[in-house]
């Protein structure tokens, strides 16, 4: 088993820490209904999650359908309004996450969330799920002008934590996380239970696959 000495661990949010798909699908279908468009099954919306809110809205409107840029621009505030109303209603913490965060904190590692979800949704959700207290930094999808897979988000999180990227490990569920970590020069572990934009997670280049969050503790050792 490969071990990675680290001073910090960065976590993706949707599909890694939290199972948020129920709320995302509810908001998306409320949006589609308001716009007079057909509903989409949860499984399909599941495959749309990963590159942030505008991409999710675009795919809900345009996948096997047609939508102009103006349609998407008009739909985004509709989605935001509905998602604010349901954010956290059916979200659940994945098994082993709290124990993993507790152990990493006890090992004195610094922790951060790096997510493409907008900050208006991220921060209230972390508080509602009672896990905000574990993280010294949160980098959301609108913190910088770019989103994952751009490595700038991960590098910014490391700056906030006072560590170099080579002293951190990324834990995520998709190619966005893997590509961002690779470009930032840090190891990346991917969970097999997440969303991964419909891509088989075992086809994504990474440094380890986790079927359970607790397995991360076997790979990460304090530097």
Radius of gyration: 17 Å
In CATH, the architecture of the largest domain is 3-Layer(aba) Sandwich
**What percent of residues adopt helix (DSSP H or I)?**
40-55%
CATH fold topology of the largest domain? Rossmann fold
Low-confidence stretches: none
Order of H and E elements: EEEHHHHEHEHEHEHEEHE
Shape: elongated
**CA distance, first residue to last residue:** 17 Å
- Assign the CATH superfamily of the largest domain: HAD superfamily/HAD-like
Main sheet properties: 6 strands, parallel
What is the SS-derived class? alpha/beta
Descriptive report:
The protein has 223 residues and is α/β, with parallel strands linked by helices. It has two domains: 4-19 and 93-222, 3-Layer(aba) Sandwich (Rossmann fold), CATH 3.40.50; 21-86, DNA polymerase, domain 1 (Orthogonal Bundle), CATH 1.10.150. The protein is built from nine helices and ten strands. The protein has helices spanning 21-34, 42-46, 53-62, 69-86, 97-106, 119-128, 152-161, 175-184, 216-219; strands at 4-6, 8-11, 18-19, 92-93, 110-114, 137-139, 168-172, 188-191, 209-210, 220-222. The strands form three sheets. A six-stranded parallel beta sheet has the order 6-5-2-7-8-9, with helices on both faces. The chain has a two-stranded parallel sheet with strand order 1-10. Strands 3-4 form a two-stranded antiparallel ribbon. The two termini are 17 Å apart. The mean pLDDT is 95.
């Amino acid at each position: 088993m490969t071990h990675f000495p680290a001073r910090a661990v960065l976590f993706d949010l949707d599909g890694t820490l939290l199972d948020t798909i129920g709320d995302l699908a509810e908001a998306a279908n409320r949006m589609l209904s308001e716009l007079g468009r057909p509903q989409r099954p949860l499984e399909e919306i599941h495959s749309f999650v990963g590159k942030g809110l505008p991409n999710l809205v675009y795919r809900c409107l345009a996948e096997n359908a047609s939508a102009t840029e103006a349609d998407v621009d008009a739909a985004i505030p509709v989605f935001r309004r509905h998602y604010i109303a349901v954010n956290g209603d059916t979200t659940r913490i994945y098994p082993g996450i709290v124990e993993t965060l507790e152990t990493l904190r006890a090992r004195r590692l610094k922790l951060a969330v790096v997510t493409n979800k907008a900050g208006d949704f991220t921060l209230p959700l972390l508080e509602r799920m009672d896990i905000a207290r574990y993280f010294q930094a949160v980098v959301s999808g609108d913190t910088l002008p770019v989103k994952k897979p751009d490595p700038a988000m991960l590098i910014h999180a490391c700056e906030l934590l006072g560590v170099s990227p080579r002293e951190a490990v990324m834990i995520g569920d998709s190619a966005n996380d893997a590509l961002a970590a690779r470009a930032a020069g840090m190891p990346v572990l991917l969970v097999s239970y997440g969303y991964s934009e419909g891509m088989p997670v075992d086809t994504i280049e990474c440094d380890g696959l986790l079927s359970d969050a607790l397995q991360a503790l076997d790979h990460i050792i304090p530097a």
